């Protein structure tokens, strides 16, 4: 990647707190300069390879470097995410599982009225509805309240890949930001295996400075 707007010396500040198990979840800075990124990636991949008993080949290093560079830019500049986290148990030979958290204000009486939230359970218009699977369950949080939902969705990304996404949304009282947590992966089995840790992680999220 080049110098300039893709990189920043401003490392930002934590907007969403969590006391999640650091052996399972790692923090991914969305603002970092090139040297910080290189140092982080080297340390991260070395540790992950050792924990999985995997040889860190040049091909694997290149794959992860490209993935995380694109992820940083996408989440920061396109999605506008506040925080991102990496699930460590996914082997290096698979696409990493990254979840991102975003805060936004919605003063509507119900979550379904929040702009963009209804789209969670609406089928993609450019994909035949019969090829999509969507389900939602009530998802309470000890910190963010009981007005939460977890939405899972599977849909074909192309003729060979079935994407699966998991999205959590907590609709909080007026004056307190709603919290939106989302992750997706190109292997449904990875998401299925990670679902319980994802739920556990989601329950650890809380907003700083709100007494929650």
Search tags:
212 residues, alpha+beta, 3 helices, 7 strands, disordered N terminus
Quickly give the structural class: alpha+beta
N-to-C span: 39 Å
Largest sheet: 7 strands, antiparallel
Arrangement of strands in the largest sheet: 1-2-3-7-6-5-4
Number of strands: 7
Order of helices and strands: EHHEEEEEEH
Note the overall shape.
globular
Low-confidence stretches: 1-12
Radius of gyration: 18 Å
Count of helix runs:
3
Task: Work out the strand percent.
Answer: 15-25%
Helix percent band: 25-40%
The overall pLDDT, averaged over residues, is 84
Structure, described:
With 212 residues, the protein is α+β, with helices and mostly antiparallel strands. It has helices at 34-52, 58-79, 188-202; strands at 25-27, 83-87, 98-104, 133-138, 148-156, 162-170, 178-185. The chain is globular and about 50 Å long.
Secondary structure: elements and pairs:
Blueprint: E1 25-27, H1 34-52, H2 58-79, E2 83-87, E3 98-104, E4 133-138, E5 148-156, E6 162-170, E7 178-185, H3 188-202
Summarize this structure briefly:
With 212 residues, the protein is an alpha+beta fold.
């Amino acid at each position: 990647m080049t110098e300039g707007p893709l990189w920043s010396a401003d490392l930002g500040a934590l907007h969403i707190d969590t006391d999640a198990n650091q052996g399972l979840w790692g923090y991914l800075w969305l603002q970092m300069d090139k040297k910080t990124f290189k140092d982080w990636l080297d340390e991260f991949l070395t540790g992950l390879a050792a924990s999985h008993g995997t040889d860190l080949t040049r091909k694997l290093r290149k794959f992860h470097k490209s993935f995380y560079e694109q992820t940083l830019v996408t989440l920061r500049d396109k999605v506008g995410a506040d925080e991102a986290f990496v699930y460590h148990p996914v082997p290096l030979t698979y696409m990493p599982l990254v979840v991102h958290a975003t805060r936004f204000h919605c003063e509507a009486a119900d979550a379904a009225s929040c702009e963009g939230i209804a789209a969670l359970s609406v089928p993609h218009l450019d994909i035949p509805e019969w090829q999509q699977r969507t389900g939602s369950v009530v998802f309470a949080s000890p910190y963010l309240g009981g007005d939460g939902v977890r939405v899972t969705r599977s849909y074909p990304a192309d003729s060979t890949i079935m994407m699966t996404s998991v999205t959590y949304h907590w609709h909080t009282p007026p004056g307190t930001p709603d919290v939106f947590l989302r992750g997706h992966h190109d292997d449904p089995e990875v998401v299925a295996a990670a679902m319980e840790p994802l739920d556990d992680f989601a329950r650890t999220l809380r907003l700083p400075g709100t007494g929650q």
